[in-house]
Structure formats: C-alpha cells, structure tokens
Amino acid sequence: RALQPHVELTATEYVDTIMEAADLLNDGRHRPGGVVVLDQVNPFPFMLGWIPPRGNNLWSASGAPIRPASEVFKDADYVLIPKFSTDAAWTERTLKAYTDHLSKHYPKVEDTRSWTLLSRPPRS
Questions:
Q1: For the chain, percent helix, then strand, then coil, each to nearest 5?
Q2: N or C: which terminus of the chain has fewer CB atoms within 10 Å of its end residue's CB?
Q3: Helix spans in 6-87 (H)
Q4: Contact assessment for residue 71 and residue 113, using Cβ atoms and an 8 Å cutoff
C-alpha cells in the first residue's frame, strides 16, 4: 500500500485500516471522546460506542462544502488523518483548509501504519 498510496483501497484494506484506528483509540491510553476523521466516513463513534462530535459530518465527500473549523472541531477530542484515504481529494482539501486550526489546537500524538492521530489536550 505504501508504494501505491493513491490507488483506491480494497474493501479488505479499508476494513484493516479502520480496525487499526479503532484499536489505537481503544487501547486504554485514550479517554473516550469525539473523533473527527478527515475522510469520507467516520465509523468510530459507532464502533467504539463513543458519542459523535456535534457539528461534524459522519459522511463527507469531495463535493461537500468546507465548513468552519469552529463547527467541525467544536466537540472533537481526536482527529484521525488517513494515510490511505478513501477520497484523497477530500482529505487533501480538508487538510489544506484546517491545517492552521489543527496545528494550534491538536498536537500529533501518534503515527501508525495507516493513520496520524491528533489529540486536543484535556480540557480543564
């Protein structure tokens, strides 16, 4: 996959990547919280039994409008950035739009084979 990152994921590869992210978030080091995924689908609130962040889409695509960061990340504790997106154009577009906000509010906490995990510091 690393040699062909822009080739569409197979169904098996997609399931493997979301299972990898679910295992990462549910490994006991991360408290339950809102997860935003910069990809087409956000299955994690359902997979993990966590409350979905308000203001965020559970489904997005290249044609969707870019919404203000203050809405999208309002209740987000975590941001997952796929290394192998199911919609590369959408992921690139959202990264470009939200880079400043993410760099100010969500430090990178971990890289895995398929994901970059950002986390907002705990709120007091």
A1: 35, 20, 50
A2: C
A3: 11-25, 44-48, 69-72
A4: no
The answer to whether the CB of 22 falls within 8 A of the CB of 30 is no
Q: CB of 80 within 8 A of CB of 44?
A: yes
- The radius of gyration of the chain from alpha carbons, rounded to an integer in Å, stands at 14
Please give the DSSP secondary-structure letter assigned to residue 29: S
- How many whole angstroms separate alpha carbon 111 and alpha carbon 50? 22
pTM attached to this predicted model: 0.88
Q: Position 70: which residue type?
A: S
